[in-house]
Amino acid sequence: MVRLAKFIVGALAVFGLAMIIIVYIKDYKNDYNEELTSTYMTMGEDVEVTIPKDSSVKEIAAILHDAGLIRHERAFVERLQKSEYAGKLKAGTYTLNTGMNTLKMMETMSKEDDSNKVLQTLVVPEGFTVDQIAARCEEQKICTKSEFVNAVKSVTANDFEYLEDVPSGANVRYKLEGYLFPATYNIYKDTTAVDLVDMMLVAFKQNYTSEMNSQATARGLNSYQVLIMASMIEREAKIPEERPRIAGVINNRLNKDMLLQVDPTILYPLTNGMYDKGALLLEDLEYKSPYNTYLHKGLPPGPICNPGVACINAVLSPEEHGYYYYHVVNEETGEHVFTETFEEHENTMIGGADIDGDGIPDEGAGSEFEDNNASSGVWSNREDDE
Fold first, then answer.
1. pTM confidence score
2. pLDDT at position 115, please?
3. Chain Cα centroid distance, residue 2
4. Burial profile 169-204: b = 16 or more Cβ within 10 angstroms, e = fewer
5. What is the DSSP string of 94-111?
6. CA dist., res. 217 & res. 229, Å (int)
7. Of 272, 261, 205, 215, which Cα lies nearest the Cα of 236?
8. Is the pLDDT of residue 182 over 60?
9. CA angle, corner 171, sides to 227 and 193, nearest 5?
10. SS3 string of 107-132?
11. Span 224-255, pLDDT tens digits
């Protein structure tokens, strides 16, 4: 009897265990099939997951499982392989929901992420001003002119430490003029004017090295003074080897307390930073502006464009010579001739002869100064300029 009772108890236990296993297998199979085929979705919780580049399907399934988004990794893999999204899942960061079916998750992870896609590029050439960059941004529909200008004006020394080099109360068009580094910038779906300005300032800090800063300090200059001089060279020089030579002319004239007489310092305020005037008239030389180096000695109050590294290096390593004058001799190439005295300068003027002897190039013989990247070069309209 005892043996029979034990047998019955054992049989019932085995039967019960078998039933539990059967139920478990049935539930597991139903659960698995639901994840494999369901198109139903419920309200759940958002979960952010990151899929690394070159992740395998199994690795993606494991990431989703660990995040609590799926229960059966194998079901996810199986469904993906049979779906339209096979081979289309992309790396990136996604916000999924615990109430999503796996097919919806696959759809989300297979979409092109426009936020990481380069939609276009913005080319900022050496010598462009804030206003020219703003105009190009509007032309390419990246942002409006006013949005870009407002972003430029919103930056403070707390945001960009080099602004501490700008003199307090400087009478300038933009304090950031000169610091917006010329380069090619990628534009994304969410790129704003503020983002663009930030990218340009970061690029400046990356390119204006500590070594350059040390060189400037050794020459008694801060970053702002370097950029003022480099911006004039940028608007003057077309030929690379002339950059340090023009830097030398600027230094020579500053050291002798001469007017710099650099044409772009008139064109910058005269054209509101657009440099869209092709020639200077004699009357333009009297244009009332603190930037006008025909009226005011020393450097202009701020940069007149955003220079590149080559012109910055020209300021830091200027050519030492005895030249005080230069002017264009080849409009096509932008080549200048450099001279030491006013007499030599006057004698080499092409198309600018002083026929009547009044010390001013005569009408039709140089009263207009062609714009080679916005300048004809340093010249003197009177011998007592020195």
1. 0.69
2. 66
3. 90
4. eeebbbbbbbbbbbbebebeeebebbbbbebbbebb
5. EEEETTS-HHHHHHHHHS
6. 15
7. 261
8. yes
9. 65
10. HHHHCCCHHHCCCEEEECCCCCCHHH
11. 999 999 999 999 999 999 999 999 999 999 99
